[in-house]
Amino acid sequence: MKSLSRGLDVLLGVAGLEQGATSTEVAERLGRNRVQVARSLHSLEAAGLLDRDARTRAYGLSWRLRTRAVLAARARLMVEGPRILREVVEATGVSAFLAEVRGDGAVAILEDVPSGLSWVGRSYPLYCDDAGQALLWDCTREELETVFAGTEFIAHGPQAPAGVAEFEARLIAARRRGYSVVDGESQPGVFAVAAPVKDFSGQIVCALHTEGPSERLAPLAERHGGIISEQAERLSALLGWRP
Q: What SUPFAM superfamilies does this protein map onto (predicted)?
């Protein structure tokens, strides 16, 4: 059991370093004997859980392990997501969704819709979708330019952004706020708040958002935004994200 525990500690130590690490760096991070750590790293590599860079000699999580972890996180999202959505609906009284990026659009993958009108599988342009800002939360200006290269910013709603610069300004404001507010962008009179959901690697895998009429929901933006951001963080934690 001790050897298993040591091995798991070493594996987690490597997982916590995005760029990988040598045996010395892992030992220093864990405060452990370098020889013991080196043995554990060698065993984990032999088991296919770690890969070693031939040039830098640094260890990193193997693609085999990463792939399995991604599949496990996806499975958990599909189990825990509906529970989170139900709690959001109970707290806000409006429809709640989980959406992800597909191509240049955002698509709802899970929903809890009191009205019964399903939006799952429908795609909307990222620049004006209710979840668009949350899905592109971590993007730099350069990355946004790449995402929207060739995109025609059609005004699906009266408040839809006219270009990348306007979208970025709204995204920056959303980051400061802790959640995005989309009012009359995807459709006239439609209001939404959204927040990103991350997995164990820190990658944004989807966005949690509400949707409803602007007239009723705009005055509740701050309250609903707090609920959405809190539940998005909770779902992220369930997927293994640790800030």
A: GAF domain-like (SSF55781), Winged helix' DNA-binding domain (SSF46785)
For 7-39, the DSSP string reads HHHHHHHHHT-TT-B-HHHHHHHHT--HHHHHH
Euclidean distance between the first and the last CA atom of the chain, given in angstroms as a whole number = 29
Q: Which amino acid is at 22?
A: T
- Domain locations along the chain: 2-61, 70-238
Check: CB of residue 217 under 8 Å from CB of residue 93.
no
Is residue 36 packed enough to be buried (19+ CB in 10 Å), middle (13-18) or exposed (0-12)?
A: middle
What is the per-residue pLDDT across 45-60, written as a single tens digit (0 to 9) for each?
787 777 888 788 888 7
Residue 31 CB burial class (10 angstroms; 0-12, 13-18, ≥19): exposed
**Rounded distance between C-alpha atoms, residue 127 and residue 137, angstroms:** 12
CATH architecture designation of domain 70-238: 2-Layer Sandwich (3.30)
**207 residue type, one letter:** A
The model carries a pTM of 0.79
